[in-house]
Amino acid sequence: MSQSELIERLKAYDPTIDEDLLNKAFAFSIKVHGAQLRESGDPYFSHPIEVASILIDMKLDCYSVITGLLHDTVEDTVVTLEEIETLFGAEIARLVNGVTKLSKLELQSEETRQAENFRKLVIAMSSDIRVLLVKLADRLHNMRTLHHVIAPEKRRRIARETMEIYVPLAERMGIQGIKNELEDLGFSVLNPEMHESIKGRLGFLHKSSESTIDTIITDLNRVTQEAGLSCLVSGRVKTPYSIWEKMQKKNVTFEQLSDIMAFRILVDTVADCYQALGIMHSQYHLVPGRFKDYISTPKANDYRSLHTTLIGPLNHRIEVQIRTNEMHQVSELGVAAHWEYKKSGPLRDGKQYVWLRSLLDILDQTSGPEEFLEHTKLEMFQDQVFCFTPKGELIPLPKDATPVDFAYAIHSGIGDRTVGAKINGRQMPLRTKLQNGDQVEIITVKNQCPSPTWERFVVTGKARARIRRFVRSQQREQFGELGKSLLQKTCVKEGLVYSEKNFSAALKHFHYPFIADLFASVGEGIHTAKEVIAVAYPTKSEDKQKNKAETKPAESFVNAKTPGKVPVCINGLIPGMAMHFAGCCHPLPGDKIIGVITTGKGVTIHTHDCEGLSLSIDPDRVLDLSWQENTDDENLHVGRLKVIFLNKAGSLASMTAAISKLQSNLINLKITHRTAEFWDLLVDVEVKSAEHLQNIEAALRSIPVINYVARI
Ligand code: MN
Predict the structure, then answer these.
(1) How far is the CA of 9 from the centre of ligand 1 (A)?
(2) What are the pLDDT digits (tens) for 393-449?
């Protein structure tokens, strides 16, 4: 294929092409592929030129053809994408980049059993339909020259990939011509004996009835002419693959297969189609059950035609397809045909390509082919991302999915034990949003638990449900523990002997199936310990009930009934659990904090270095907590300062003025030591955070009469 020939063929259907750019691409491709050779021994650049030629057969635009010429330069030579952009502009660079990405993807997928997902990935990664069409042309030429590839395993792998990925893509885009050729080439590699056998028999049949097809064509022409219908009749023997497919589907032998010849009648209008059908059915016997009307009900890829099977002239069973010229163009060129029709006239209806729906919406609204190209972004599967496991398995996930979603999608056990993730070999945060084609490796540790914080960024229902379930069960366990110790303590107070047997009556009374549920309900504050004990020990507590009938209900430390008071600003707390800030250290937002589960008190929050904390605390009772960042927490906390100042008139006033200037309130003041010269004070102020308190400290230190300020 010479350069000028290529350009002439392209000009024949698009006179507006940029000839200089095309020539430049031609020369550039030959130059950079240089002395590289194909496995066939041909110079490498013959391949991009053939790909460009296929794209011209498909009547694609000039940019697609240039992309075909350049499609392997970035992948296989030293050329960079930046150079392509400088020389050929941003749009061609974008298209070449798209094809290069798809080529890299191919190397990644040894495993094709997940073909459907892989096809979706290919579509999702082809931001522009032309990327996909160039890729198809590339694959078609590679398949045509596959017999030159020496390693049989490699040949089979490429053929299998073609059958599973590219044949269905060509079919869905309605490109019948390429679909048939890819299919037959793939079949000849994957099942060479069968291919040869069918071909041999077809050849024999063809020879023995060389004139059969011609005779039938003549007869079909005669009957249509007699009826006054102008049409074009053609006939062919079906491809080995389609015959083999039929033999498999219908479970018949080659000898039993009668309709191996197919005839096509092309007419001008839809009305002509039905007229031609009427002629066929009145002139020949039809085989019942074989008539299909794909004009009134087009296939998903917009294939439209009438199919029928007849006992034709010479008493052969023949398949006849009847369609308009336009329908035929669409069936051969698929999506590419729309360039053509857009130029010559408006589309009849907007129903083409159901699976390319969004593409067509754009098509209907745009005015010219250029605009159509510009807006032809494939939006299929844009709400999904497809990622690989280290073994090459493809996992489909919703858009914005994170490694945690990925882990749960593989197996819930893996999700539960996740501690980290590597994306494309690099350790990344678990909240990272995954991209198409990412390879994700999940790092797990035994006995690890899901973190409640994950719930904020996971997007899959499965991950969310598992995390919630875990948090609920953990919460219930802790409420249970708290409830049990509340009951034990109350028993001791009331002089009762604590025994779990006694609570069976209470279970019935409060409608709980298990004692753990009862404990949890007490811990959560649904019932007070006293209420439960009153039911569990009815006789012993009766007297006391009488005496104390008027007293307030048992003091509950549990906050569940006033959820508004539970600070939502602390990470690691169980919602609904009783909590309060320790009086010894007055923790403030910004401080490092821990929680201590205390019997009868819920969780007490201390600063992590609080001196008031006993060293003998059971580590199981300690919770790791932290303040949430950037919350709109307007709650005020108490900060306590020790202040020493000179006993002078106005000293106290200057201190309170400084505090209120910083938007804080002085809420308590205690003189701990007083001499003639100095006063020692404990000052409680309301502050928003540790930082706020630090500002107050600094302000107080700047007052001349104040000698000493320190947080306690
Ligand atoms: Mn290539």
Answers:
(1) 21
(2) 778 888 889 999 999 988 888 998 998 999 888 888 899 999 877 889 999 988 888
CA of 124 to the centre of ligand 1 (A): 20
Q: What's the length of the chain?
A: 712
Q: How many whole angstroms from 71 Cα to the centroid of ligand 1?
A: 6
Q: Which two tokens stand for residue 597?
A: 């589960």
Q: Which residues contact 231 (CB under 8 A, 6 or more apart)?
A: 224, 265, 266, 267, 272, 276
- The reported pLDDT for the residue numbered 555 is 36
How far apart CA 372 and CA 343 sit, in angstroms, is: 11
Q: Which amino acid is at 77?
A: T
Catalytic residue positions, numbered: 75-76
pLDDT of residue 424: 82
The model's confidence at residue 132, banded by pLDDT at 50, 70 and 90, is: confident
Q: Please give the class, per CATH, of domain 637-711.
A: alpha beta
3-state secondary structure at position 91: helix
Q: What are phi and psi of 641, to 5 degrees?
A: -120, 145
CA distance 321 to 318: 10
User: CATH second-level architecture of 193-337?
Assistant: 2-Layer Sandwich (3.30)
94 C-alpha vs ligand 1 centroid, how far in Å? 17
Which of the following CATH numbers is that of domain 3-190: 3.40.630.30, 1.10.3210.10, 1.10.287.3610, 1.10.274.10?
Answer: 1.10.3210.10
Tell me how far apart the alpha carbons of residues 560 and 565 are, in angstroms, rounded to a whole number: 9
Hey, is 658 helix, strand or coil?
Answer: helix
Tell me the residues surrounding ligand 1 (ion) with CB < 5 Å.
72, 138
Domain range annotation of the chain: 3-190, 193-337, 351-467, 468-550, 556-627, 637-711
Which one, of 633, 640, 619, 622, lies nearest residue 683 by Cα?
640
CA of 380 to the centre of ligand 1 (A): 25
C-beta of residue 347 within 8 angstroms of C-beta of residue 82: no
Range with lowest mean pLDDT among 30-39, 105-114, 619-628:
105-114
SS3 606: strand
Residue 402, classed as helix, strand or coil, is coil
Q: Which has the closest alpha carbon to 336: 366, 358, 356, 361?
A: 356
DSSP 8-state class, residue 431: T
CATH number corresponding to 351-467? 3.10.20.30
With 0-12 / 13-18 / 19 or more C-beta atoms within 10 angstroms meaning exposed / middle / buried, residue 318 is buried
What's the DSSP call for residue 348?
Answer: S
Among 436, 432, 412, CA closest to 422: 432
Calculate how far, in angstroms, residue 510's C-alpha sits from the geometric centre of ligand 1: 74
Residue 664 gets the label, from left (phi > 0), alpha (psi -120 to 50) or beta, of beta
pTM to 2 decimal places: 0.55
HSE value, Cβ hemisphere, 13 Å, CA-based, for 293? 8
- Distance (Å) from CA 164 to ligand 1 centroid: 19
